[in-house]
C-alpha cells in the first residue's frame, strides 16, 4: 500500500532527477566544446620556416660539454630534497609519495579538492583503479640505486640541433612529457624513457613512443580521466559517452603492462600550484573549479625532486621576445602561439625555474631558462 501511494512522488522525483542529469550533461558538453575551441584557437598560428632557424654551433658545443660535466661529477645523495626544503621550507614536503599508493583512503589530504588537486568524492572509483595496478613506486632496479640522477626533458624548440641525445640517455631517470616524440629525434633528445608523464589528451597516439620498461604516469585533470585510464589498464574500448569529455582525440590503447601504470599523486600538483607557485586557492564554480593549473612540465620538475637525488632539465624555456623561433623541437609551430594561450602562467613558472637554477638546485642542460654555461669558459 505504501508503494502505491509513493509512486507519483517517486515518479516525479525520478523525472526531476533525470532532467537535472540531462541539463548537467548538456552543460558539460557545451563547456567542453568551448574549451576545445579556446585551446585550438590559442595554438592556431603561422608555421615557422625551419630553414631560417639558425643553430648556434658554439652554444651546441658548450651545452654538450656542460651535460658531460654534470654527469661526471659525484652524485650527491638527497641533495635536491634538502635544497627544496631550504628554499621553500613548509611549502615543500620531502616525504610526499610521488605516486598514489594503494592505501590511499588513509590519506585525507588527497580528497580535499577535485581533480587535478585531489580526488574529492572519487575515493571508490579511485580504489577500483588502484586495485588493477600491481605497483606504486619506481622500477625496482632504479629504486635500489644509492644515488639517482633525473633529467626532465621538455618539449622546447631549444633542443633542436643541440645533439644532447647521448648525454640524456646516461641519466638514471629520464622523464618525457605528453606526446613528445623520440622516433626521428634521438640525436637531440635521446631514446631512453623511464617515465612518460601525461594526461589523456596528451598521450602519444603512436605505439612506438611506449617502451617495455618505461612507466606511464597518468596526470588526472578531471574525474572522467579515471574512466580513460581504467580502460587503458584493462585494455578495453573507451565508452562512447566518455569521449565527449575530451577536447581532442585520445589514445585508444596504451601498449604497456598494468605493472607499468602509475597515477600521479595530486598532492604534487597541489604542492606545485598552491604552495610553491602561490596560485590562489581553487573555488567551486558552476562547471568546475576556479583554478590556475601548472603545466605538465613544471609539475614534472617538482615530481623529479621527490624521485631523485639530483635533477637536471633540458628543453625548457619560452623566449616570447623571439616570436619566430621554434616552439617545439618536433613541429614547426612558432613561439608566437604562446602569446595566445591563457591556461598557464608561463611567466611565474619561468621565474620559479630561474630561481632553482641560479640557486644551484637543478641544472639547465640546454640553457633555455638560465644559461649558466653560456657565461663560463670552464666549470
TrEMBL record:
One of its GO terms (biological process) is lipid metabolic process. It comes from the Eukaryota. GO terms for molecular function: lactosylceramide alpha-2,3-sialyltransferase activity. Disulfide bonds join 150-308. Its EC number is 2.4.3.9. It is found in: Golgi apparatus membrane. Belongs to the glycosyltransferase 29 family. This is Lactosylceramide alpha-2,3-sialyltransferase. It comes from Eublepharis macularius. The lineage of its organism: Eukaryota, Metazoa, Chordata, Craniata, Vertebrata. The gene is ST3GAL5.
